[in-house]
Input
Amino acid sequence: MKIFNHKLGKKDAFLRFYLHADLSRIGYSGMSFPGKRRAVLIIPGGGYNHISEREAEPVAISFFEKGYECAVLYYSVGEDMAHSNPIEEAAEAVSVLRRLESVDEKKITAIGFSAGGHLAAMLAEHGCEFSNDAELNALILAYPVITMGKYTHRGSHDLIVSVLSNEVYLSAEMNVSSSFPPTYIWATRTDETVDVRNSLMMYEAVIEKGIYSELHIYPEGSHGLSLATVETGRCLPYVTSWLDDASRFLDSVF
Output
């Protein structure tokens, strides 16, 4: 595994890559290795005031083990958003990821958790305003913040709206187009931090546009489950299935 950072944006944002070594070039003759791999851009949550490490490297390692080239986006949060737009940073991240020699440029997925799910949806809707190479080929939203209206997560709302101001522009359910990428959404009904109706609104929006999509609402579980394992701090074995389910969804897309 090759791990390294790449600076983004105007402030302190960066990408942390988790990439496979190209074994085909270092003496393993007679064996077959992938020429290009599918890639995942992981966007952790944190309410736009911090980056949740629980939704960063552990998720990257899980997708790496499934054969993906992975990158975690450490985007601007809090006061830094006044100097660097996290949507623009996310668009730049996709462009950088797409240019990697080991990445299949037509198989790039963003996965966002909580407020990172909001940013992932913003990337899918508005990323190409900042970069022609920012198009996503698939999207995974985990207990996402979606709306800036009723049922919003107030902390995320107040921070992102204070910088970008336009609630309609920032309400993901209001900006889905027919070119929106195939989307997998999961959440828990008992989430007391981000109302499950955020996920329901987003699912309704994508099916209205005929987007290939899948929704899983688990009957129980708190917010911020990440992988729902002991290693990520909140163990709920029933919910751990989301990773394999999302992987199967991506297999059906690609």
Q: What stands out?
A: The chain has a mean pLDDT of 95. The beta strands are 2-7, 14-19, 37-43, 69-74, 103-113, 138-142, 183-188, 213-218.
